[in-house]
Amino acid sequence: MSGSVAKSQAREILEVTSPTNSSIRSWLHGLPGVDQVGCEARATGLATRSIKTSSKAWGIDLAISMIDLTTLEGADTPGKVRGLCAKGAAPDPSDPSTPPVAAICVYNDMVEVARAALHGTGIHVAAVATAFPSGRASMTVKLADTSDAVAAGADEVDMVIDRGAFLAGDYRKVFDQIAATKEVCARPGDRPDAHLKVILETGELVTYDNVRRASWLAMLAGADFIKTSTGKIAPAATMPVTLIMLQAVRDWRELTGSMVGVKPAGGIRTSKDALRYLVMVSEIAGDDWLDPQWFRFGASSLLGDLLLQRQKQRLGVYSGADYVTID
Fold first, then answer.
1. Which of 42, 137, 216, 227 is the most buried (most CB within 10 A)?
2. Is 158 noted as a catalytic residue in this protein?
3. Model-level pTM?
4. Which terms does the record give in the GO molecular function aspect (predicted)?
5. Is 142 a catalytic residue?
């Protein structure tokens, strides 16, 4: 949302324990429409910014520290997960000053393996849940999926919204599913709750207006992060879509005083791409989001190029691709 935010209407939604579908729909469809041409032009303009020398080095290290290093394949083994954890903790063994990644993201059954491998590193363990990537399952199954991840010790849960329900206008159903999943992320006692990252799968939402609506709906329901994509659907993350989501979290903080994170996922492969996103974060949301706590990259292949660029800055020459590990 940009410009005039319907604050009184938003507060009504936030203060109602059980908002109706019609009230949510009325508010979401009252959001200002996205100017497609303007949004894409703004994203293109930000992508032309040039970052050099020490600023580039700082940006590369920051981008590395923001990566959710991921393996989500049916052929995943404990050995593969342990290897990925080792890479996340020491991305470039030849240079101990290389920062670790933010998180290792796996399926539920590999959470305990990842936790054991990452013990003492400070790297988070994220688990995908709620019938990832399709989201096509009963709510009972989705909540059980989430409960398994939390019980196994996941620090973060990446859930997918029911895109079918959203596109059919059943916003209350999507709201309820996010809110119920958020409740399952709570842990008893002094153990911190698992953070909930809500995947919108923007490639299936059709319009920029829907991306804006889905972003606000997720935040209204309790998302700690809003995430573009599963990485399984094309198009995945794009700069215009991420720009809209950054506007949403910026305006959410203005409205509520609370920050929500953003995670573009899929299709971000080069250091140049990552630096463009960091420029956009600073320009649209603000420098407070330039932190792994509030911005992540779901782009495992990105790490290799960031490491090569980092080696270039340190050594003065480009290394071959075989100088970094391939996952």
1. 227
2. yes
3. 0.92
4. deoxyribose-phosphate aldolase activity
5. no
